[in-house]
Amino acid sequence: MLSVTSWAYVVVIAAIGLYAATLASSDLSIILTAVTALVVASMVRVAASNAGHRFTTGLAVAAAVPMVLGSDLGVDLAGAIAIYAIGLAIVWTIRYLRGEGHADLLPTLVRRFAGYVVFATSYAALRVGTFAELSGDWRDLFPFGVALAAWIGVEVILRAVLVFGKRELSRSYLARSMIHDMNVFLGLAMTGALFGELWPEIGWWALPIALLPYSFAHLAFRRFQETKITYKQTIRALARIPEVSGLGTDGHADRTTELATAIGKEIGLGPVQVEDVEYAGLMHDIGRVSLNEPQILRMGYSDDDLARWSSEIIAESPYLSRVATHVRHQYEPYRKPGEQTDPDVPMVSRIIKVAAAYDWQVHQDGLSPLQALENLHAGAAYEYDPEIVASLRRLLESRGVLTPVRV
Amino acid sequence: MGMIALISSFLFSAEPDWGFWLPFAVLFVLIEFFAVEVNDRLLQSSSVMVLMSAGVILAILPGSDALFGLALMAGLGPLTPADFKERRWFQPLANFGQFALAGAVAGLILDLNLDGLAVSTDSLVHVLIASSVAAFAYAAVQTVLIRRAVKTVYGRDNLEPWSQMPALFTGQVTMGIIGGLIGAAFLIADREAIIVFIVGVYAIGHLSLYAFAQLRDSHLGSIRGFVKTLEAKDMYTRGHTERVAVFAQMIGEELKFTGTQLETVRWAALIHDLGKLAVPTELIRKRGRLEDEEYAEMKAHAQLVEEILAEVDFLQPMVEIASNHHGGFDGGGYGGISHDEGRSPSLEACIIAAADAFDAMTSARSYRMALSQQYAIAELRRNSGAQFHPEVVDAFEKALSKTGRRWGAPHVDDEEMARRLAEDPELSVRG
Q1: Pick from B190, B194, B219: which is nearest to A194 by CB?
Q2: pLDDT digits over A268-319, tens only?
Q3: From the CA of A185, how many Å to the nearest CA of chain B?
Q4: Which residues of chain A make contact with B215, given a CB cutoff of 8 A?
């Protein structure tokens, strides 16, 4: 089903491209070169920096197109649209045939095309319209800046709206994670603009000059990405110490983390908080390493002790200071009878509390998912945050773990 | 010397075009100011880029020379926030001279080559060559001076060995060429907008690099913090890991390790006992000899490091070193999965082994007092070639004598005495 709809979209976009090409005033050779450049550049992925979007260098080519096609007389908008549409249709086809991420492919294609067109159109309009009176550099900078802002707006909104049936991620999370990765986006767009700015004056020399500052940025993105992966692996490894030494429960931390991050994304936290949820989930029980001390074995311990030990260990890493607070509060009830909810208990802690309780009941106490959820429901509004319990229910339903209860 | 360079360059060259000079100087100082320490000195190279852009523009513009402008600009580079905070003035002043001299040399090369050049796309290759030569000269003058300064002030020569210089020079020259190209392109295109875009892309990259450096430090901090908390369970091993890391670093420096090798050894030292921390505390604290079964459990900790850190790709080389640190030089001992019975472990593993044993002897245990440094060294010597790597033992002894610090208890020179002292604290008062 998906592929028929997808092909329909692609054919429509390609048709728009071909029609626009007949209206274009630029040389055919320039249009063909730009299409080739767009296709080739779209094959080069850039390691996304924060929330894991994987932009391609195609963005830079797209940003350069209206500038390259522009002159003092105006911008060949039809030419630009032809380049975008044909280029994207080819890119999509290649990706599809290679079998890359089908679910994401179509939304990305539509989003990119819309973003490109909005960018080129606003640039063209501003260049000859509103800002035509400005002199010198401002005449280049203003249209680009405003058009770039419009482009980003379209990308973010479409990212949240166009999900094509994937409902486990909230719109808020989608939009915020996109904004979070804007540094890479901006770097690429400005690189394209640099090329577009230089091209009319110095021709192909513009290519190395535009590429070199970018390659520095690229290297930095890559390094950051690699270090982040290493950091996550390390935290995950350290979180396994209690299990390895026989003091933890097998897989509890991993499963809790998976469930908790899914809840975080579902109820609309931002990417930074979702990452906190991830670290907090992995390490929420790290304090168990202390459980083999004879003293503790003799005296016994409470949940609160465990939360405190865990939090103390996490607090040793400056990067995780927030997470230490979250873990400290992980056993606190949502609301004590007769009192207001405690504003000091962070959202992340409440999510961990629900996810950990669910996982414990299912995997330690041997309850069925439905029984466990019933227990959480019974404790909702006092022990557990009702919103989070509701989110957990939606999540379990969409995963097919529960059969939805119809009222 | 730098002052002389600055003054003479002021006398012999025309003034730079200050309108162009200022923004570049601000950018240059900012980059140096917010430099992120990256292993391969990426940041230092990128300030060369700004310098060369400015140099090319100043040299080509009619009526303006690069010589004085670059010397002054480069001289402003070595101001760092830490120096301001701690009111250290000597260090920046010394650096000032060295930067200014390097800047003056680069400026002179650019002036001689490019003055009055009619710049167009045809002359770009000319600009490229000139700026690469200037960048090379800049880097060369700086490194030669740094080495000389370090040698005269500290009397030692353990800065990066020359083998690492080609990489550094390549980086600097590449950055210099980019800078020159940007400067020339700016003159040809005559649009300030391109500077905005270049600075924009650069700034984004820089922020990312900054975030990278923070994360990298935190990575180290997290492991360190973990080890610290876990060690705290046992008062006798508290601080052990940090000390082993210090000793390992000392040995590595003595063996003329490169920066990356040293980093690997430091990391390995940090995680060398991670597995032991997963062993029940009673066992670690146990007084006296261990039962066979208990010994087997202690041995298992070598494999545990591997198991715990198996998924951290970055740490794999360090894990291998760490898990083999109980292997003897003669092939005895025990180790992790990669341990090969009958073959000596890697040099790095031998370093950790010696450092570990030394610290174990020179710190107190529940059943004995700390032993003296002489005893520990003699013990290493005695087992040199068998349990310990002879080169490592030699290097360790040399490094220890250089520090002048003494570890362990001053006069406890044999194991029996140390045990008796621990049994009966009165003895040390009487004895």
Answers
A1: B194
A2: 898 889 999 999 999 998 888 777 676 777 787 888 888 998 898 888 887 8
A3: 10
A4: 224, 227-228, 231, 319
pLDDT for B336 equals 60
Measured over the CA atoms of residue B112, residue B116, residue B121 and residue B122, the dihedral's sign is negative
A51 lies in the same domain as A90? yes
Domain architecture of chain B: domains with CATH: 2-190 (1.10.1760), 232-430 (1.10.3210.10)
> Same domain for A207 and A66?
yes
* Touching A: B residues 128-187, CB under 8 Å: 178, 181-182, 185
Residues of chain A found within 8 Å of residue B304, distances taken between Cβ atoms? 244-245
**Shortest Cα–Cα distance, B115 to chain A (Å):** 21
Is any Cβ of chain A less than 8 angstroms from the Cβ of B235?
no
For chain A, give the percent of residues with pLDDT over 70: 91
Q: Are residues A53 and A134 in the same domain?
A: yes
Q: How many domains does chain A divide into?
A: 2
Is A404 inside a domain boundary?
no
Which residues of chain A from 77 to 106 reach within 8 Å of chain B, CB to CB? none
Tens of pLDDT, residues B294-305: 777 767 766 777
CB contact under 8 A, A219 and B211: no
Closest of A344, A371, A346, A347 to residue A357, by C-alpha: A371
> H/E/C letters for each residue in chain A?
CHHHHHHHHHHHHHHHHHHHHHHCCCCHHHHHHHHHHHHHHHCCECCCCCCCCCCECHHHHHHHHHHHCEECCEECHHHHHHHHHHHHHHHHHHHHHHCCCHHHHHHHHHHHHHHHHHHHHHHHHHHHCCCCCCCHHHHHHHHHHHHHHHHHHHHHHHHHHCCCCCCCCCHHHHHHHHHHCHHHHHHHHHHHHHHHHHHHHHHHHHHHHHHHHHHHHHHHHHHHHHHHHHHHHHHHHHHCHHHHCCCCCCCHHHHHHHHHHHHHHHCCCCHHHHHHHHHHHHHCCHHHHHHHCHHHHHHCCCHHHHHHHHHHHHCCCHHHHHHHHHHHCCCCCCECCCCCECCCCCHHHHHHHHHHHHHHHHHCCCCCHHHHHHHHHHHECCCECHHHHHHHHHHHHHCCCCCCCCC
Mind listing the pLDDT tens digit for each residue in B204-253?
A: 888 888 888 888 888 888 888 888 777 776 667 778 888 999 999 889 88
The parent domain of residue A333 ranges over 240-398
Query: Hey, are the CB atoms on A216 and B205 less than 8 Å from each other?
Result: yes
- Does B226 lie at the interface with A, CB-CB under 8 angstroms? yes
Q: What burial letters (b/e) apply to A1-29, b meaning 16+ CB within 10 Å?
A: eeeeebeebbeebbebbeebbeebebeee
> Does A148 lie in the same domain as A67?
yes
Q: Which of A141, A212, A289 sits opposite B230 (nearest CB)?
A: A289
Smallest Cβ distance to A183: which of B194, B202, B208? B208
B211 and A224 within 8 Å at the Cβ level: the answer is: yes
Residue A246 falls inside a structural domain: yes
B218 contacts in chain A (CB < 8 Å): 231, 317-320
Mean pLDDT of chain B: 76
Q: Is some CB atom of chain A closer than 8 A to the CB atom of B195?
A: no
Q: Is residue A234 part of a domain?
A: no
A182 domain-assigned? yes
8 Å CB contact of A236 and B311: yes
What pTM, to 2 d.p., does this model score? 0.81
- CATH number of the domain within which A314 lies: 1.10.3210.10
From the list B46, B189, B314, the residue facing A230 with the nearest CB is: B314
If asked whether residues A153 and A8 sit together in one domain, one would say: yes
CA dihedral for B140, B145, B146, B148, sign (positive or negative)? positive
Task: Check whether residue A214 and residue A244 sit in a common domain.
Answer: no
